[in-house]
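YM 10:42: DUF2513 domain-containing protein sequence, as discussed on the call
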Amino acid sequence: MKINQQYLKDLLIAFEDAPNPDTDITELKERGFDYMDPEFMFHMRLLEDQYLIQRTDGQPGFGFYESLGGPGSYAVMPLRLTAQGHDFIADLRQQEVWSTVKENFKEASMSSLVDIAKQLAQGFAKQKIKQLTGFDPD
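YM 10:58: structure's back
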């Protein structure tokens, strides 16, 4: 399965838009992300791998339990965006960053996406600082 950048961004926004500091798979389902969908599982694993989300108790996983010979099952666990997760979605919410990622980095790996978004956001911020103040931060 390949990374669906729009799905990934929308999933992070669903975490960020939660009314409380944490959310769970049932709340995410209400926002259109069905935890029984393989795409959900795939992207949640990527987010966890990159430490962008985690359980609020600090334990590994996001509530999915493998089953021998069966489809597995979920436990509803409180989940949150980590500081890195908030930074990543903040970067992706910047129109210049998102446009550049979508147009030029369609096949990027997950770790590359995080790094690229951060570098682009910093680059655009430096350009804005120079434009507003005349000061070149480089």
